Amino acid sequence: MQRSKCVLGIIVAFCLTGFAALSEQITIKYVHWNALPEDPYNYVEAFEQQYPQYKIDFTLIPEAEYPAALRQMARTGTLPDVLCLWEYDMLEFAEAGYIIPLDQYVAKSEVVNLEDFIPAVRSLVKLQKRLYGLPWCYATHFLYYNKDLFDKVGVPYPDDTWTWQNFVDAARALTDPEAGIYGCDAIVFHGIWFDLIGTFGDPIIDEQGRFAIGGCAEKLLKELYQLTKEGVIAKPAALAMGATAVDLFAAGKAAMAFNGSWMVSQYKDITDFAWDIAPNPLMVYDGYARRYAGLHTGFFAINAKSKVKDAAWKFIEFCLSQEGQRLISEAYANPSARFSVMERGYHEVRGPKGPTNWEALWIQAKHGHWGYTLLPPKLWMDTVEDFYSVMLGQLSPSEAVQRAIARAQDVLGPDKVAPYTPCVP
Amino acid sequence: MNRMSYRSTLAAYLFLSPWVIGLLIFVGGPIVTIFILSLTKWDLLGSPTWIGLRNYINMFQGKGDFWLVFANTLIYTVIGVLVSVVWALFTALLLNQKVPGTGLAGALFFAPAVVPYIATAFALQLILRGDLGILNYWLRVIGVRNPPSWLMDPQVIIWVLPALTIYTFYTGQMMLIFDAALKEVPKELYEIAQLDGASSLTIFTKVTLPMISPILLFNVIVSFINTLNMSFTVIYPLTAGGPGKTSTVLSVDLYENAFKGFRIGYACAEAVVLFVLCVLGTACIFWLSRRRVYYEA
To answer: How many domains does chain A contain in total?
Structure first.
């Protein structure tokens, strides 16, 4: 009897110690629009294993509702400790005081070094004057091309020296109306419009942070309309919520397509034809060459009202470490925004028929700009809708650009919009 | 009022109170909030800023293509109501014929109503696509050289989208309601009309329509409200309001202003306009129908 009591007492004491240990665990609330990856890529589990004193309370918010949900959480004081903010939201949240600057944390960190990040991160710090977020990874855009179609016609593959004229000439040569082959698919992802406008010479967001499109956008729209009219570029199809039911490139009906880098994960399963990726073409004006690539990311940020800010930073720091970035890159096939991690190629996805030219990613990263992602979504969505109308001959290029400028003045205020300027290289 | 009567009345109100309280909190409250927010500027981050009627002034001055969106809404609603009511009545009339297979036909006619519209929308994209769609493929096979771009031509899309209301659940419901109403028309009236030598069209216009006119009025009002309010469900998955703003209606524009543009005040103003349109439209339908609806004594 005495012995049983003794054993029972030991068990109870052990349990109480366990509970005490558990109660010392710090819970960090974290939200994201992507579900956590499964093992062995679950970076949250990896963090908890490395730091057992922390526990992550993760909430998935569907992508379509993400910005609105975060704003509602901000208003109701239920923001998580760590949030992953889209570009435009980070600007707004910082201005409203919902997130704290991370400068002091980064200054003391042995893991995070701003010099290791892609140039666009530092340009954002320059724009905002403080560092409010760090990119969890990034995505950009590629020119996807069908190698078999190029071989059939004898056109050299796109490379980093390709100019816009090379693209136009190749698209014309590759178009085969009888076979139903287009030189290039219609632009289906909205970011591509701004990539090409930037390539043609308009900054999209100028050095003063103003919305800036003008004559170069008009020039691009005129050229694209002409190519669409000739049947070299496919006509735009109805886009519902950013998606189209038909992907001409994947179907082998378009020799080229501009699209997001995330499409590599889908195209890797193509077995019908060999394909590869290339950076955006250069625009050459009298010996001056310009390249522009759009970037997308979410920025890890810390809630200003978080009671566990240091713990939140610990989680962010882990996510940005070599290990954390490896897990995120491998899970989502998105490159790290840190050059030292990106060079290890964790994001590289290889299918049986492509891609191989991962050098394209480096080129895009070095010439990457946040651009339109720093604008309110409705502004660029309505502008892109007008661009589609131009391709269908329903609106002239100059009307579309003037409407974009007027719309921006209405939404952002006249002082945040650069006046129209002709296209000068 | 005697005590018994008072207690009886009190009991009635008490039984009604949960519903009334729920209505006030979950319906009345948001409606009043929308009216108030429509007088503010708010991006969901800071606090709403009072701007009075500025949202309405901007709207009626044509900023944000309001008048184009408003016109699209009216066209879509009028054509959508006509199409859905006529289609529902037509299919109900077919189902009331004494021929084999009406049960199966009824199930087939009702099937689109139970399929989630988002799935229907993606299928419709494939069918209606200008260059690669199945519909245009068959049109070219039968000799139509330049079939239209059904979802990308502004002149065509204003007809196509309302026509697609036949795939909505409320059209299926109207079909069932018409079917029930047609079965209630006394057979003797048809026999008398036939004996008098009336044609099918005369029988339909002089017997059937008057006898089902109360149900017809009900369905027209239900269709009007649903077409107006559910236009987002039909249009957004299919075209997201494009190309340009040619298929943008008030409900789509409201959604985009609220959840893509975070212009909550302006979006609420659009919601108020939609509400007023709904009320005025319903009142108009009632007024127009007062001499055309036959109620049995």
So the answer is: 2
